[in-house]
Write a structure and sequence with these properties.
- The chain is of the alpha+beta class.
- The strands form five sheets. The protein has an eight-stranded mixed sheet with strand order 14-21-20-17-18-19-15-16, sandwiched between helices. A four-stranded mixed sheet has the order 9-6-12-13, with no helix packed on it.
- It is 34% helix and 21% strand.
- It is extended.
- Helix 8 runs parallel beside helix 11.
- The two termini are 28 Å apart.
- Strand 10 and strand 11 form a beta hairpin.
- The protein has four domains: 53 residues, no CATH class; 96 residues, Immunoglobulin-like (Sandwich); 166 residues, Glutaredoxin (3-Layer(aba) Sandwich); 160 residues, Alpha Horseshoe (Serine Threonine Protein Phosphatase 5, Tetratricopeptide repeat), CATH 1.25.40.10.
Amino acid sequence: MVKSGKSFSGRERHCAFLNLRAGRFADASAISGLDLPDDGRGVALLDWNHDGQIDLCLANRNGPQLRLLRNDFPLPGHFLALRLGGKSCNRDAVGARVDLYLEGSAVPLVRTVRAGDAFLSQSTKWLHFGLGEEKAIDRIVVHWPGADAETVRGLEADRHYRIEQGTGRGDPWSLPVARAPLPRRPLTVPDSSPRAVVFTHAPIPVPRLEYQPRDQAGRIPVEQGTPVLVNLWASWCAPCVVELQEMAGRSDEIRRFGLDVVALSIDADREGSAEEEHRVLKEAGWPFRSGRIGSESIALYQHLHDFVFDLHTPLPIPSSFLLDGRGNLQGIFKGRVEIEELLAEVGRLVRLPPSGSGRAAGTLPFPGRWFEEPRRLNYIDLAIALAASQESSLKQTLDYYSRNRAALGQSPRAPRLLYLLGRKLEGDGQFVEATNVYRQAVERLATYIDALNQLAWLLATRPDDFPNSAPEAIALADRAVKLTGSQNPSVLDTLAAAQARGGAFLVAANHARAALALAREQKELPLAEAIFHRLQLYREDEPFRGSKIPGE
């Protein structure tokens, strides 16, 4: 749902519950001010201004990504704050337990030093004890990790103390430097924007991109051996027109950076748009290449976008894709391109190596050093999307696979990609090539039912392409039936076709009847109709040839 563009949070507001004791809680979300619409991920507790009241720091998946909520409730009561320092145990005393005994009480208040106490969050290591109306402290007992317990006396309420292991005392502590006051700000929902700029930390090989030049027949590749910015625009889009004018006005500067630009109109399928495109480009004085693309190419750019972004929302117009001279994706601009930002990125790419920490560091918003070389991206999701897409051509898909075979083959999802390639080959009538690819998928994953089933089906129903293949088809289909527990009608249908191919028509009819019953039970009506047709053939001692479902 998220990848289809749904909200991360579903607008679920934060909740706060007040402990009424005796196992009862009250929903205090609204009066506490915590019922925010943020998509919260982590919450950390801390006393930000060291006034004895616990404040909250919230980390969110959406914006604002960080909120500090200062606790200003005028509640009466006292507190004690302790910071432990280990000697024989770990320095932060993680795992230590502190029991605080108030005068006249045999039941202690208990706090533990933790390293992480919520999802992706770490509260302060100061131990905060809320004392209520009591302020007379008898003693505390510190249970150090892996060491003897230690008793400390003489601590006063409403103070901060540091306690070092083995000293038996608490040293008063105060904030060395006063913190600047934090002004209150209204809790507003940030404005959303379709504009975004993302630079990849490693080059992403993309399928070969082609377009139809203006006033010319045929298609030519986008890649020219130099960096190129592919700009998707439309004549009806006002920001697109302004963007074209800006790039045209700074064309000399853009070329000095060694960058080419190709403006591709997405209106190739809209009648009468060519004249309007020509007018816009002429008025802008467009000095770079230009052309048109149809729905097939637009879908390809959408696949590139979806590979980079978690949210698979439709591409805004304008959008631009920055490719290097080897045809690798280096960045995506959603919305209008800022020329200065573009040229700065092109200059950075020229200075960076093709891969490694130098390139990755340039995509981060802060400096640092790498503990180890960053892992290279695996493009399997992009390859799978390309193979599964009806808009992408077989030639384009096979070309991308062959150029990136080594990297794609390292993924555990490679069998899925091989299966989809086989389906595309099969749809093109290349049945021998399809079986070779299905065999590769089965070799990578012997329990891959889809590949087993489709390989067995081709061997059973294409006798002209695969003479004497009935025994292999039966063995493959039988393996798939066992893996599915005889509960998959399509697999049972394949076994029946393979047995009919081998001349065992009575056995084939029995399996076809079982497959038919399952298909009807599971509401797979087109498959049930096709199985019923094949069952009549088996009763007449005839094998079946063709696709599983008519028209497939």
